[in-house]
Amino acid sequence: MFSSRLEWNAHPNPLTTLLAEKRRQGASILDLTESNPTRAALDYPRKELLTALADPRALRYDPDPRGLLSAREAVSEYYAQRSVEVPALRILLTASTSEAYSYLFKLLTDPGDEILVPRPSYPLFDYLAAMESVAARQYPLRYDGVWHIDLPALASAITPRTRAIVVVNPNNPTGSYLKRAEWERLQTFGLPILSDEVFSDFAFSPDPQRITTLADQNSVLTFSMSGLSKIAGLPQMKLGWIVASGPDHEAALDGLEWIADTYLSVSTMVQLALPRILSASAPVQEQIRIQTAANLQHLLKCTPGSACRCLTIEGGWYAVLEVPRIRTEEDWVLQLLAEKDVLVQPGFFYDFESEAFLVLSLLTPPAIFAEGLGRILESTASRS
Questions:
Q1: Which of 12, 64, 304, 337 has the largest count of CB atoms under 10 Å?
Q2: CATH number of domain containing 164
Q3: Based on C-alpha coordinates, what's the Rg of the chain?
């Protein structure tokens, strides 16, 4: 009766079931998975944001499928402040990065085609691709003290049906940025690059070998994606964008305009408010940097000499903690929740190839993070 694209297992997994039961019992859960910035005890510039959303021009509907010019110029200025030249003509607005993926899959693929995506990474690629009748084929990231793309494995994953390569820069949850040597090799494959840069502003330290955006690259057809969810800590505002660059980018933007014109999904209110939202984002970003850095430093201070190891993190909002392989990741997360009231995510949620890894959100309020980490280290010490 329904499309085969919807044949996904909708039954709650054991972690979700246990969490619901614990909350039903009134347990006080230390949630170390919190990635919603509006729940992370941040101080938003409320007056500025609410005033920006009260623009009376929002009462008039005058759509532009690429997005209002004033909004695209605000995005252009966002890049200019980072010394990257991105004309408004190369920008197309979307309601989210997920919608940007949907548009790009529509633009670049036919049913049955393939998109290469990193592993481990964002757990929704399979679903986003399946909604477009496209296969998400994985290429691995390897860890040898730092994370890097396994370029030979990526090359071997390319087939005649491969239409694009996705890079998440920095990756979620590994926090690893694309390096210049990796970019040089990626260009040789001759495939469009989809660069997800939503966490790009949140590096923990500088690195001259790092590439923070591909928005100004011109060697291959490239689409850089970002939006307000992370940049301004405002996922509810529902505005993202695509920057097209490289050969054939004008034709690509024409195609994207046709697709966007079919949906016209971006709110006029948010588009009009965008210049002021972006100008008000600096203090929110600074709070996020301080909070994530404080949690990371606490993690790095507490794990040496313990049974756990924190993998190298370059940026983003997450940390990967390796725990003793005396039980499965699922057993670890269930026991931590059942016995310690600590909620973390297992590595297999992000398609880690081996065990045992836990993924912790560095956006968690520091007091909760410290207490939750203490309970994790206590639990792993008693069982290692």
A1: 337
A2: 3.40.640.10
A3: 21
Residues 182/152, Cβ–Cβ less than 8 Å:
no
Q: Are 224 and 243 in contact (CB under 8 A)?
A: yes
Backbone angles phi, psi at 376, to 5 degrees: -65, -50
Say whether both 332 and 214 belong to one domain.
no
Segment (H or E) for 140: strand 135-143
Provide the angle, in degrees to the nearest 10, between the axes of the packed helices 249-263 and 97-108. Answer: 120
CB environment 165-194: b (16+ within 10 A), e (fewer): bbbbbbbbbbbbbbbeebbeebeebebbbb
Q: What is the pLDDT of residues 188-218, one digit of tens each?
A: 999 999 999 999 999 999 999 999 999 999 9
User: Total domain count for the chain?
Assistant: 2
pTM over 0.90: yes
* Statement to judge: residues 26 and 84 lie in one domain: no
Q: Please count the CA atoms within 13 angstroms of the CA of 337 that sit on its side-chain side.
A: 24
State the residue for tokens 């592993």. Answer: 119
Extract the tokens encoding 133: 């009748």
My answer on whether 237 and 93 are in the same domain is: yes
